[in-house]
Amino acid sequence: MKSLIFSFFLLLGSATVLAQNITLKGEVSDGKAPLSEATVSIEGQEQSTQTNSKGVFELSLPQGNYILRIHANGYQLQKVRVDLQAPTSLPAVVLQRENVSTEEQVGTTISIADEELDDEEGSPEMISGFLQSSQDLYFRRSSFDFSPVFYRPRGYQSSTATVLVNGVNMNKVETGRPQWSNWGGLNDATRSQVIVTGVGASENDFGGVFGSNSITIAPSELRNGLRISGTTTNRNYFGRAMVTYNSGITPSNWGYMVSASYRGGNGKTWLIPSIEGMVYQSYGVSAAVEYKASPYFSTNLMGIYSYNNRGKSAPLTQETISLGGRNYNPNWGMQGDYVRNSKMKRIAEPLFVLSNTYHKGDTKITAHLGYQFGQVGDTRIQYVKSQNPDPSYYTNMPTYYYNMYDASTGEGDPFAWDKAARQIDYFKANKQLNWDKLYQINANTGGESMFSLNEDIIDTKTLTANVIGTTKIASNITFNGGVSYQHIGTENFQQINDLLGGQYFLNKSYYSGENYDTTENLRLGEGDKYQYHYKATVQRANVFGQLRFKYGKADFYVAGRVNRTNYEREGLFANNSVYVDSKGKSGVKYFNTFSSKAGLTYSITGRHILQFNTGYFEEAQPLNNVFVNIRNSNSIIPFRLKPETQITADGSYIIRMPYIKARLTGYVTKFENATEKSYFFTQSRLGDESAGFLTQTMADIEKLHFGGELGAEVQITASWKATGVVSINQYTYTNNPILFQSSDKRLVGDPLVAYLKDYHAGQAPEQVYSLGLEYQSPHYWWIGVTANLFNNNYIGIAPSLRTENIYLDPNTGSRYTNVDENAVRGLLRQEKLPTLFLMNASAGKSWRIKGHFLNAFISVNNLLNTQYKTNGFEQARKGDYQAMLKDRKSGYPTFGNKYFIGYGTTYYLNLTLSL
């Protein structure tokens, strides 16, 4: 047997030695003229060459599959996959200047990481960060021009795509979504990305229903040289500075990369007003060291740390917008000479990854070992025995008084309207948070703080180990696969950060009056934990495999994944009598899932392509959605939770002609067994307001998303290009899910049916239309304009309003009589925001100075300074028929829908020097 194995490898080696090399030729240009001295290298090998004065290169290689890395100073790196079976001349490879699209991506990154909204009361969630490096026109436009309205292609959440950094899965266990700010501001270091949008073949990960994004930080993957950039903007921060140096792989086989950035803003406006009070401080650093021990083995050690501490804005009612203005933000106020925001988002989670790669010919195997630790925190003002200090709180608004009197019946306070008029002036004079007042109140209570600034903290430690490989098992068959394991430990608690001039804070519930934890810890100081304290242990393991086949004009793939996810909660506080199981371990809850996908690409000709994909995905429920109230209880949702399933199919017709590039796609996706978590106040069924803070889980959700998308580019002349994008979709609920509600008065109520069938899923426009025109000068400057129309943008609905509770008197529990069903339908009609038109412009210029490049890029969004709402959600505080009728009778509801407000005209200016 040993001699047989030896003979096999001897014959294999002999065949390799005797195999004749095959000639590969190609040409590199910038679209107008050949590029000389462009470097062409083989990924994973030492061999490389440069183009001659005519932009031509030639390589001699054995038969096989290769990835060419083509780059030139001042141009973006481009990778070209080659299946070399016979002497081949490649089509011309066109490199794009860095100031054309790369800087555009840098500019738009502001709206990716920094504007993620995670307010407890509702949040339009962005997926644009996933798309920022996509080369597809539709997805590129979705990331850049559509992101101000929180547009989500196909209505997908960002949890439907996996994001990897050097092989480490960055999707958070609590929500399933990636935390983009973990690498925010380090655009140069994270520039090497492989994106699969939608269901498709993926080498690095099985991916989700919306694909995967694999980011690689390594000297061999990034552009060599020194890069210095400076930015000014009037959005969330005022300025940014970034410096990056990458050595590439040097003759000594070592390489290193280091990148650092700073972003800052004091929350005040400059030049053109933006959202007020957006205090911003962020700095980041990333470094990588790589060593090639041989032509086939390399080791890379990478670290990345991005600290971000930024103020948040708030959703507003129409009344608040009208009185406060389009840039109003109630979360901040002046403390001395400084802007102080009460709701700050703090992110500090460094990541380190050690990667070892073997790459020879068609075989590549990479092992990753990663460790991430750190905290994510959200501050808020905690108050007891006092009114909510938020200046936009409903009792501070004029409609609170206006609706105390019914003119048609004469019932109520006859002076209410006079009080409402006076309240208008009062609000305008006191519309910002009064920090001095909070300190004064705390100073007059004998040491007890009525107000404190607390922070909800998630302290996470994640260990990741995986192996990913690819090899060619036949001339036309390639295998990709991998195995991965993650151990995640989180510690979750609320911490008292600032007593605001007081000496202690009482360790009691504002709603129930009972103690948190034990009576021994009645008085809490700064740094003490309050309200909840628990740990969660999560283990995730998966194995995936993929086979890709090539037969003539047809390429197809099949792939599968098996995954196991374990959850366990351990409570460290013994909370009030309702949460009898708050302390101790919950036991393990696990999900076993299986997913599969397949696709076919058929080239009618080299310029006309058909593509079809289908997939069945099972995903473990997010950690927070498994428990009734994870902060205070070990109890699991009393429902047979299954993995969420996503069944999808899409078909595309792709045109790739010299002057026309287009893609037309139709798709359908069915979501089943989904869950959603929300937190809100209500006065329905619970009687008094103090018992009305609910944690709500909606289970057994079914939704249907379907539609079509078209993206087309037409090269009118050598300098002029026109682009167009159309996307028409529909996202609706297709069943009536089950609601579970938990409060300080009752751990979990009886299940309620939420009648949501045929309502729109909401919180993203369903229709978009976009036209663009770009001029590219032969003198290396360009300018572009886009016009964008958004329609069918429905706000998020409140499921609790669509249960039988709407018909019940909260004081008696009996059903209302004489209910007008037409009135009920009117109360529950889902609001659709007005059709919106936005124009954006961008321009760039590149200078070559003694072999170096200076690039300038500027973008101006919302040229017409249009005032608009990006999205919104219904309030559920008044949740019964009579209360809703009374609140809305005047036409000026106290608890109207809340909205997120879009930016006015904003600019982004960037200068980059590449040495």
Instruction: Tell me which oligomeric state these chains represent.
Output: single chain
C-alpha-based Rg, rounded? 29 Å
Please identify the structural class as seen in this structure: mainly beta
Q: How would you characterize the largest beta sheet?
A: 27 strands, antiparallel
How much helix is in the residues?
10-25%
Terminal CA distance: 58 Å
Segments where pLDDT lies below 50 for 5+ residues? Answer: 1-19, 99-130, 685-691
Tally of DSSP helical segments: 12
Tertiary shape: globular
Q: Total number of β-strand segments? A: 48
Mean pLDDT score, rounded? 87
Structure write-up:
The protein is mainly beta. 10% of the residues lie in helices and 48% in strands. It has twelve helices and 48 strands. The strands form eight sheets. The protein has a 27-stranded antiparallel beta sheet that branches. Strands 1, 4, 7 and 8 form a four-stranded mixed beta sheet that branches. The protein has a four-stranded antiparallel beta sheet with strand order 3-2-5-6, with no helix packed on it. Strand 30 (529-551) and strand 31 form a beta hairpin.
